[in-house]
Every structure is written in structure tokens, then in C-alpha cells.
Amino acid sequence: MTDDTLDVGFIGLGTMGGPMSRNIARGGFPLRVHDIDAELTAATAERIGAVSAVASADLAPCDVVVLMLPTSALVRAALLDGDELRIPFREGTVIVDMSSSDPTETVETGRMLAAHGIRMVDAPVSGARERAEAATLAIMLGTDDDAAAETAIPVIETMSRSIYRTGGLGTGHAMKALNNFVAGAAFAASAEALIAGERFGLDPQVMVDIFNDSTGQTFSSSHVLGPHVVDRKFASGFALPLLTKDVRIAQKLGRSVDHAAPICDAVTAAFEGALDDLGAVDHTRAYEFWEKS
């Protein structure tokens, strides 16, 4: 089977999945798309030139199926009904979970799929919607099946500028959670510094400019603080529940390997407090909660 004969399916057409699926179609792969929202499925299919899979079972003929869903529980529910396949895939089908999933649950889902001859790759992404649109996402790829990875990589390459092989199945999702913990810690620390500085009389934008020209520079300082905190737009496109979930996964991962992680515990508590108060808002609005604390 050559790359250009692969039939590809895509499940999850939200903030990230929409542009990611479009880039697969632009890459020349025959594509079927599906979302729990039937209207979104139809509209996306028409916009990008794909086939609308009204039911997930319509993805059964696909050679590679990509999922971009909020949680690993939803990934499993999309693929399995108990121990049985929800979608009657052919043996050898490659599942590519690009969601921010719990690595321990990914390993278990992979084991359940393997019992039916279905292969699994975890390939979570980093870069937010801007890089999803530009097809420049960073990919963290884990799998126990090198042949499955080789099948999936040409599809993944349509969405990314860099693919990092992280190890066995679940290591991609572990890396994504740890990356988002680091990003969340940087945002929380930057927000804490801005609040303290402003109360002392510093100008927040001047602080951000100095961070970005000094050792305090991070992705948060260069891409988030200015437009979404100082300018109060609070529209980064990354939801507070999703970031909180990822930081919790990192905390769970640390505990599973008997690693004392007080910083991760503190960051988790900071985001959980904001989430309890604010609900499902953009993650940058956590600043508003911390600001009044």
C-alpha cells in the first residue's frame, strides 16, 4: 500500500480538529470526517472536500483513523463498546490518537484494540489553533508498533512541522501532559509576577516587554500575556478545563512513578481553584481569579 492510497478518517472537528482535518485533505488523502455534531460534520466535509461520515461506523473502510477529542475516556468510547469494537474496522487499521489523553488509559485502550487486530499510535500535538491552521504543529509520537508509525507518519506530516518519536505507546501522551504542565506553570508564575508588580506600581506591558528581552521569556510571555492578559482579550483558544485536565494528568503521572512534585501540585491547585470559580472559560481568565485572590 502506498501513501497516496491510504483512506483516512477523522473524528473530532472542534477548535483543533477542524483545521487539522482540512490539512489532511489538502495533503491529498481521501478523507472521511465525523463529529458528534452532525451539522458540524456536514459543514466541515463540504468546506474541505471530504466525505461526511454521518455515523462513526462509516469510518470502517479507513486505513488510518485520527482522533482529536477532549479526553481519553471519549477516545475509548468512540472506538470501543466495552471490549468490543464500536466501529467494524478491518484488521490492521491504524488508530492515531492526537488528543491530550491520559497515558495509562492510552496503554489500556491500545491493549483492547490489539485484541481485535487494530494498531494504535498516540500522537498528541502542541502549538494551539494558530499552528493547527498553519500545519506546523509539533507532534509527540509514541507506539509499540513501528510499522503502524510508518503508516501514520505521512498523514501526520500534513499537519506538522516536526515529529518527535518519544518511545512506546502512551509516551506521547505523557510528554504532552508534562509539556502542558510546564506551560501552565510558566503562565501561573508570570501571572503571579504581573499581579505583584502591578500592585507595586509597575506597568504590566513594560513587565511583559522585559520578560521577553530577559531570562523570564517563555511562550506565555511572548504569545499570551500581552494580548490576552494585559489587553484583557482572554481569547487564546485554549480552555481552562483542558489545561487543568492536562496538569492533573501530569500530577497523576508523577505520583505513578513515586516522584514528589510539589511544583506540579501547586500549579494543579492554582488551576483547579480558578476552574471551580470560573468554569469553562479561556484558560487566560484564570488571571482574573488570581487577581482577586
Gross morphology is: globular
The structural class is alpha/beta
Strand numbers in spatial order across the main sheet: 3-2-1-4-7-8
**Main sheet makeup:** 6 strands, parallel
How much beta, percentage-wise?
5-15%
Q: Could you spell the SSE succession in H and E letters?
A: EHEHEEHEEEHEEHEHEHHHHHH
Report mean pLDDT, rounded to a whole number. 96
What is the CATH superfamily of the largest domain? NAD(P)-binding Rossmann-like Domain
Rg (CA only): 20 Å
Distance between the termini: 59 Å
Number of strands: 11
CATH topology of the largest domain: Rossmann fold
CATH architecture of the largest domain, please? 3-Layer(aba) Sandwich
Stretches with pLDDT under 50, minimum 5 residues: none
Helix content: 40-55%
Provide a brief overview of the structure.
One of its GO terms (molecular function) is NADP binding. By secondary structure, the chain is of the alpha/beta class.
How would you describe this protein?
This protein folds into 2 domains: 3-169, Rossmann fold; 177-291, N-(1-d-carboxylethyl)-l-norvaline Dehydrogenase, domain 2, CATH 1.10.1040.10. The protein is 52% helix and 14% strand. It contains 12 helices and 11 strands. The protein has helices spanning 17-26, 38-48, 72-79, 103-114, 128-134, 146-157, 171-200, 204-212, 219-230, 240-256, 262-278, 286-291, and strands at residues 8-11, 31-34, 51-52, 64-67, 80-81, 84-85, 94-97, 119-122, 125-126, 137-142, 160-167. β7, α4 and β8 form a beta-alpha-beta unit. It is globular, with a radius of gyration of 20 Å. The termini are far apart. It comes from Microbacterium faecale.
